[in-house]
Amino acid sequence: MKDPLSVFDYANAEHADDEIVLNRKGKSLLFMYKFRSETMEHEKLGYLSEADKALSLSLSLNPRLNRLNFSVRINVYFEMSSLKHTSNDRSYDLLQKALEDGKAAILVNLKGKDVCKVAEICQRLAKFPKCFSYGPKAVTNKEYLHTALDYLNQYICAKGQTYFLAFAIGTIHFDMGEFRTALEWHKRAFLLSDYKRAIGNVRKLCLCILNLEETASVYIEFINALTFIASKLDDLEFVNDLVPKSHWNECLGKLLRFLDFLKSFPLTTKQVEIAEYLKNVLLKKTLITARQFRKCQYTTSTRNDLEYELKTASLLQPVIEPESDHKDFEYDYFAVMSHESSGWIQCFLQQQLSTQMLYNDKKFTACPEAIKYDSCSTLLETTINGINKSRNTILVLSNDFLTSEWSLLKSIITETLQRRHVILLVISLENCNVPPEIESEHLLYFDFTDEKNIPMEIQNLKLALLEIDNFR
Question: Contact at 8 Å (CB) between 365 and 336?
């Protein structure tokens, strides 16, 4: 059919000013604007203007179709505001109209697409006229960002998290200058994403990290995040576009200092590959010569060669202090995990637990003293110290943990259960069985085997920590 809109002429002849026909005509005009190639600017405006007329007439005829019409018209006004020849005043008015339609649509029926579109409109109004800039410097009216967060939080509390909502919340916190919170939401978005969406989210995630204070702990978090990204995407091509193009110049110095830090940090084989790849990317973007970069030598950790001596371990008797000995613990929890999983846990889980992700969220503080895996004695000593300083213990199960560290640490875990009379919080990173030494009535189980379920399981873990604290 040369003119797909001609069917609406026939429909209108049969049913003049029918609200359903008008709604579908408005939707079709919006689709033609979006998907018809080689359309001139004046033709685009014509499609959108006709769509506005059809939807507005439908609204006046049948209020019961409000949500359908508002949900389409919000996009019509939004696209009209983005046309090249639209003046700033006209663009601002159209965004305001889009926002009112969005609020009306949400009031009738809370839909994720409408909520995300309202959030995007609020971001543009907050940064108007610098709508496409990143960060707090572009923001002129922060109240719009708070409005966007209100709607996004409302949806998550009612219906749960999705990639689009997590991504939207991350970008809003970035514009507010709350880079840590933005980073944690982009981590959640990455977990919830498929391959195509993950690529776009990586740039925002890395930009958040590079806006944090440059410390050793942040550099370690960065390399752990890059390691997980590389494992999910199964290649290193993403390193070529690590941050948005407009931010490369301001990030170059930070990336160079990051590489310099990695020279003195023990890396896995995969992390050495990432560092070398990033080094080559930066060589193309800077005036630094290859000769200067030759000084960058990265050390591969020899940790994989370590085997724990059970005979030595048996000479070290664990001493777990009873809960009655502590009026106040220093920390909310201590995580017991394998060396292999420690980077992921520190980067994703611990930062998520210590960040107020939602309005009604509580922060939980991890014992900052990391487990030392260098020998039996250091492994036992640091694990015992961490448990004694913390109100709760989180046990992170994986196949490598069960075949390596568990044989050494099971006496500590069982003594913790006997002397503390506590609930053990067990996270399963892989499909593996809970050790028989742990009785089922003494544990709460959280399934992290499916990445897309991890954000919700983290919220469940937060609720469990809160309930345990209140029970005490």
Answer: no
What is the chain's alpha carbon radius of gyration, rounded to the nearest angstrom? 27
Residue 224: which residues within 8 A CB-CB, separation 6 or more? 343, 344, 346, 347
Angstrom distances, CA of residue 320 to CA of 127, 131, 337, 397, 456: 54, 56, 18, 21, 32
Give the tens place of pLDDT for each residue, 330-339.
999 999 999 9
Distance between CA atoms of residues 244 and 203, nearest Å: 6
Instruction: Enter the tokens of residue 359.
Output: 């309005």
Separation of CA 61 from chain center: 43
Question: Using CA atoms, how far apart are residues 462 and 352, in angstroms rounded to an integer?
Answer: 9
Q: Which two tokens stand for residue 108?
A: 């009738």
Burial of 363 (0-12, 13-18, 19+ CB in 10 A): exposed
Taking the C-alpha atoms of residue 208 and residue 458, their distance in angstroms, rounded to an integer, is 21
* Angle, in degrees to the nearest 10, between helices 179-192 and 163-175: 160
Task: Lowest mean pLDDT of 39-43, 55-59, 84-88, 444-448, name the range.
Answer: 39-43
Tokens describing residue 73: 């018209």
Helix (H, G, I), strand (E, B) or coil at 139: coil
Q: Which pLDDT score is estimated for 369?
A: 85
Work out the angle between the directed axes of helices 66-82 and 19-35 (0-180°, nearest 10).
Answer: 30
| C-alpha closest to that of 80 among 58, 104, 106, 101 | 101
- pTM of the entire predicted model: 0.89
On whether the CB atoms of residues 266 and 219 are closer than 8 A, the answer is no
Q: How far apart are CA 262 and CA 150, in angstroms?
A: 40
Cα–Cα distance, 369 to 334 (Å, whole number): 9
Whether the CB-CB separation of 338 and 397 falls below 8 Å is answered with no
**Which tokens hold the place of 414?**
């069982």
Structure tokens belonging to residue 467: 């309930």
Question: How far is Cα 111 from Cα 72, in angstroms, rounded to an integer?
Answer: 13
Q: Which two tokens stand for residue 180?
A: 């840590």
